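Re: Re: ligand-bound prediction request (bumping)

Still looking for help on this. To restate: I need the protein modeled with zinc ion bound, output as structure tokens. Inputs repeated here so nobody has to scroll up.
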Amino acid sequence: MAKGGTFAAKIAKGSSARLVRVCPKCGQNIVATKVVTSEKSDVKNSWKFNQRFVDVCKCNEAEVYPS
Ligand SMILES: [Zn+2]
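Reply:
Sorry for the wait, this slipped through. Here it is.
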């Protein structure tokens, strides 16, 4: 009568160990997304690009991805 409970428990443990964060407000997974923003430098009259990672979930996706 092998039920494989140990194996299932192992899988559950493995999946929970992955880096998945859930937003406490909206309950959606939080996804770290690379966002590139451009800034104009007045001094050099050239564009400068900034890369940063933003945590995106339902709460702020409209801000991060303006339609
Ligand atoms: Zn959220």
